[in-house]
């Protein structure tokens, strides 16, 4: 079954990027000339997803405004002969059917996904974490969707991370199937060093079936006093219903100050308008280091 629906949890408080996130949601922090969440929505659209639910909370109405038409601004741009920019803004509002719901209490990623139950219905769906921008020729969530459709299982996006970082994420028991696709048999959220199974962690993307909602409704709250999506996916993995795809593309952690800076520098270097000038600027800066 083709995956047409996606949810983007974007209700986090952004404490790691304060004070910027006090007045501007971290999902709206720019990477050069587009907010982070626009890259995520574009990735979903390029993967054939048509309906997207963005889960927000209080103070994040600016995200909804960004994906709406701004008729006054578009009219002003056209009056000044800037039709290309006006067309870009208009296309932004029409790229997909985008819906919004508030997670009234930030009780974890599992709780955010549970808020999307009515939106999802009885279809498989994608989850694109609002902190993670992944840039590559082949959209990361599209790679997961293809694997899920091929094998008829749920799927998580995985990457190998340094051992010292595994306790910040999760650890997976995996077995290679072919290419960059693995069976996932077990997972531990935020493991202790002695609990690490492998250096593979879930980073930023997954494809799930509606079965996840029943599990989320029954499991207890886990690490950090939150409803952990990983705890629910662990149950599916133990039933043999989970894949992992070591996706291609560069991931940027937009909930991390260094991740934000890396994203801006690397995207700017390839930007069609400023790329060459920025490259020359960096060369001069590096000489002084």
Beta-strand content: 15-25%
Question: How many β strands by DSSP?
Answer: 13
* Radius of gyration, CA atoms, in whole angstroms: 20 Å
Spatial order of the strands forming the largest sheet: 5-4-1-6-11-8-12-10-9
Helical residue percent band? 25-40%
Mean pLDDT across the residues is 90
Tally of DSSP helical segments: 12
N- to C-terminal distance: 53 Å
Describe this structure in words.
With about 290 residues, the protein is of the alpha/beta class. Helix content is about 35%, strand content about 25%. It contains twelve helices and 13 strands. It has helices spanning about 20-25, 35-45, 60-65, 70-80, 85-95, 110-115, 115-120, 140-150, 210-220, 230-240, 255-270, 275-285, and strands at about 5-10, 30, 35, 50-55, 95-100, 125-130, 130-135, 155-160, 170-180, 180-190, 200-210, 240-245, 250-255. The strands form three sheets. The protein has a nine-stranded mixed beta sheet. The protein has a two-stranded antiparallel ribbon with strand order 2-3. The longest helix is centred in the last third of the chain and has 13 residues, at about 255-270. The protein is globular, with a radius of gyration of 20 Å. The mean pLDDT is about 90.
List the helices and strands and how they pair.
Blueprint: E1 5-9, H1 20-23, E2 30-31, E3 34-35, H2 36-46, E4 51-56, H3 61-66, H4 71-79, H5 83-94, E5 97-102, H6 109-114, H7 117-120, E6 125-128, E7 132-135, H8 140-151, E8 154-160, E9 170-178, E10 181-189, E11 200-208, H9 211-218, H10 229-238, E12 242-245, E13 250-253, H11 257-269, H12 275-287
Parallel strand pairs: 1-4, 1-6, 4-5, 8-12
Antiparallel strand pairs: 2-3, 6-11, 7-13, 8-11, 9-10, 10-12
Helix pairs in contact: 4-5
